[in-house]
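[Q] Does anyone have a clean structure-token version of this?
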Amino acid sequence: MAQAAENPARDAGAASVKKSSSKPDRQPGQTASHEPATAGAEAQEAIAQAGATMWENSFAFGAEAARFAARRADRYREYYEDLAGCRNPAEAGQAAARAAQAAMQDYLDEFGRMGQMAVNSDPEGSPAHASTRK
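[A] Here you go.
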């Protein structure tokens, strides 16, 4: 029986398949990029921590907004009680002015609280990161 003629193209292709299918030389515990296997776990932990912090901050903002809404509802109730006790239009106008002034102050105070919460919840908002902000 005659031997098959050598085919250089086929033989080169087979050699490249063998090279690409061989396993890279790695030490135990190393990933393909030669980083310790724990790097993936550390990244997952950092992501989980960031997610937890995001939810904690989100909850804190929501809770503060609910407290503010409850405070404002009490103020509106107080205004209507005050208005009900007015004996003439001038007193009603004064009650309305007091209520408007109180509302303005409440909103300014709340914006200050929410702003402080935002600064405190943002690690890049700290003075240590001020030089990185544009």
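[Q] Thanks! Anything notable?
[A] The first helix runs from residue 8 to 21.
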